[in-house]
Specification:
The complex is a heterodimer of chains A (174) and B (106). In chain A, 80% of the residues lie in helices and 2% in strands. With 174 residues, chain A is mainly alpha-helical. By secondary structure, chain B is of the alpha+beta class. Chain B has 3 helices and 7 strands, in the order H-E-E-H-E-E-E-H-E-E. Chain B has a 7-stranded antiparallel beta sheet. The relative contact order of chain B is 0.25. The chains are: A mainly alpha (174), B alpha+beta (106). The interface between A and B is medium-sized, with 20 and 30 residues.
């Protein structure tokens, strides 16, 4: 008797599951199909408060600072009196420190735009965006390792390109 | 206006697809909503209703829950408060900005 009862319960539960979920699955499939023919309107349920305060300017300023520091480091005298050499060494350390810090700031600012501002749909309009951001952040690291005017110029130009895309995306979303 | 658009505008129910997570756990990203467009012609939105609206300063349609009714204005919030831009940001909205009530989620 007890076995029969148990079997009955299992059967009931199974039947209920089938009754409850199969129609939902079918409806879901139908909706997906319908969406292919006639896409549903998008309705947004997201947070866009910080969009108003995103700006590529900090990244651009940091990239310009890196370029300026490279330029100044290369202008430092390599010869001179003891005092001049000491001053040049002091300046060298300070400039390298500023270059290092601003390359890091640049990388962080670009990544903030990448992770928080740009959306998946922006990749459709700007298919090179992913590659551009990736290469720009790599250039930030390269500028830490090197004192090379070309690397610094490449970084500034890459950040400027991101700023152009940023402004286009922002203008389109208004 | 094409015939399809005309039919769509006359049809009382509209399909929407959700983008974003501000209505989690009730509505997740990618879910479909069936929205009764004309429901508020007969009954005013009530506290607890999930509605689709177009606030005056946003260009996009959003989905939120009516949190408070303030006379002829409605204070709406997302269920997931940490990831929601709602009346806490753009203030209460008038009834005319509410497009319809969410009937089903799929």
């Amino acid at each position: 008797m007890s076995i029969k009862k148990r079997e009955f319960k299992v059967l009931t539960r199974k039947t209920q599951t089938t009754k409850l979920f199969m129609p939902m699955k079918i409806i879901s499939i139908l909706f997906n199909l319908l969406d292919q023919i006639n896409p549903a309107q998008a309705v947004y349920a997201h947070c866009d408060v910080p969009c108003g305060i995103y700006d590529p300017k900090p990244a651009q300023l940091a990239a310009e600072t890196v370029e300026k520091m490279v330029e100044k480091i290369l202008q430092l005298p390599s010869e001179g009196t003891g005092k001049e050499i000491l001053e040049a060494r002091n300046s060298f350390v300070r400039m390298v420190k500023v270059k290092e810090e601003h390359a890091e700031i640049c990388k962080r600012e670009v990544l903030i735009l990448w992770t928080d501002f740009f959306k998946e749909e922006n990749l459709k309009d700007f298919p090179n965006l992913h590659d551009l951001v990736w290469k720009t952040t790599k250039l930030c690291s390269k500028n830490k390792r090197e004192v090379n005017p070309k690397t610094a110029k490449d970084l500034r130009e890459s950040v400027d390109k991101i700023a152009v895309i940023f402004n286009k995306v922002k203008a389109a979303s208004k | 206006m094409t015939l399809m658009n005309l039919l769509k505008s006359l049809f009382p129910i509209e399909r929407f697809k959700v983008v974003g997570t501000s209505m989690i756990p009730v509505i997740g990203a990618g879910q479909y909503l069936l929205v009764a467009k004309k429901s508020f012609l007969f009954n005013k939105p009530e506290k607890g209703d999930i509605v689709v609206l177009k606030p005056p300063i946003r260009s996009r349609k959003i989905v939120k829950r009516v949190f408070k009714v303030l006379g002829n204005k409605y204070f709406v919030r997302g269920d997931n408060l940490n990831e929601s831009t709602d009346s806490r940001f753009f203030g209460p909205v008038k009834a005319e900005h509410i497009l319809g009530k969410v009937l089903f989620t799929i």
